[in-house]
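Design job #97: recover the sequence.
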């Protein structure tokens, strides 16, 4: 079985009957469904031709959101972190209380983006009409809450505003705006301009985008601002400097770290972030660099055919590794998001190769 088929098999075999994708079936703290992780996993299934799998996820997410419609409506009326929807749910669609950041916006923007990708790919107007009320609710929700401080995609720094989160919201609203009439579309476009201006005014230092409005460091999730959410053109000097900072500070011996002061499991190299940088290279026609990162990603498959969340060959904070092993056990493996990004990188690279041949 080739690596593509192996990643697809891992994802399909760990999709719950409800449609939810379990983030990691063997890691107790990840035995839930995240809208962010799940949407990227569903997107990879769309790329792999698994329409039914992706559709089941989007319907699960819509059902889950509808269970908490009143909460979302409260946030629309009175934007407050107290009313923000949760980031993760049980496979049955219930909120999960936890010891780390719960209130996030990135998953909901990502869900809108992915839903539109799915509908567009399969031309499924029936599904679009069925899920429109939920998409409309989340559009209103994000239009009214995007500037609130909330936890970043790593579920940290809840008192800050994060460019990668804004990018996910931006990408979702940019994609979904075509579902609405001209008046509503204009409202969305006005907020999109405000989002980008916020990032430029509050999250740029030394001509590069920072981890947050309060942390002047690179973060590999800033790659989202180009692919897939298209807030910045890859040739924009500010984005180019952002990528340069990620390469110089977070890319080491083939793999990409999250951010310079990461201590989670010692701050290892993340499979999905390495694939993300590879996608950026593929999108910008740096094919050799993309191939090298794909080779590194595929070298991380275990003998069982799994991709972990992160590997420990090069730790930023090795003194912290043992404490996390003692606290939570070995790092998550498999991580479905890692397998999803492997598939996405393969598709981006193949698409880029075809453009080169034209």
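Job complete. Output follows.
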């Amino acid at each position: 079985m080739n690596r593509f088929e192996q990643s697809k098999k891992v994802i399909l075999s760990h999709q719950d009957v409800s449609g939810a994708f379990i983030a990691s079936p063997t890691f107790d703290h990840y035995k839930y469904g995240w809208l962010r992780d799940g949407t990227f996993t569903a997107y990879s299934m769309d790329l792999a031709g698994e329409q039914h799998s992706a559709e089941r996820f989007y319907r699960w997410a819509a059902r889950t959101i509808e269970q908490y419609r009143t909460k979302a409506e409260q946030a629309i009326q009175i934007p407050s972190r107290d009313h923000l929807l949760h980031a993760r749910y049980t496979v049955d669609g219930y909120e999960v209380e936890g010891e780390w950041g719960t209130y996030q916006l990135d998953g909901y923007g990502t869900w809108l983006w992915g839903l539109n990708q799915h509908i567009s790919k399969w031309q499924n107007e029936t599904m679009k009409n069925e899920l429109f009320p939920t998409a409309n609710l989340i559009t209103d929700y994000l239009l009214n809450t995007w500037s609130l401080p909330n936890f970043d995609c790593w579920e940290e720094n809840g008192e800050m505003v994060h460019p990668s989160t804004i990018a996910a919201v931006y990408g979702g609203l940019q994609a979904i705006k075509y579902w609405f009439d001209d008046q509503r579309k204009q409202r969305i476009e006005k907020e999109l301009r405000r989002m980008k201006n916020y990032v430029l005014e509050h999250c740029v230092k030394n001509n590069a985008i920072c981890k947050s409005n309060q942390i002047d460091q690179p973060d590999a999730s800033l790659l989202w601002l180009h692919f897939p959410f298209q807030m910045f053109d890859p040739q924009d000097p500010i984005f180019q400097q952002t990528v340069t900072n990620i390469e110089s500070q977070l890319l080491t011996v083939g793999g990409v770290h999250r951010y310079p002061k990461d201590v989670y499991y010692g701050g290892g190299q993340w499979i999905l972030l390495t694939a993300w940088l590879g996608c950026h290279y593929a999108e910008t026609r740096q094919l050799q660099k993309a191939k090298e990162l794909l080779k590194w990603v595929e070298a991380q498959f275990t003998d069982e055919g799994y991709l972990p969340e992160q590997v420990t060959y090069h730790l930023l904070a090795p003194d912290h590794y043992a404490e996390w092993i003692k606290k939570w056990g070995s790092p998550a493996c498999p991580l479905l998001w890692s397998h999803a990004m492997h598939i996405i990188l393969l598709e981006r690279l193949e698409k880029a190769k075809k453009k080169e041949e034209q």
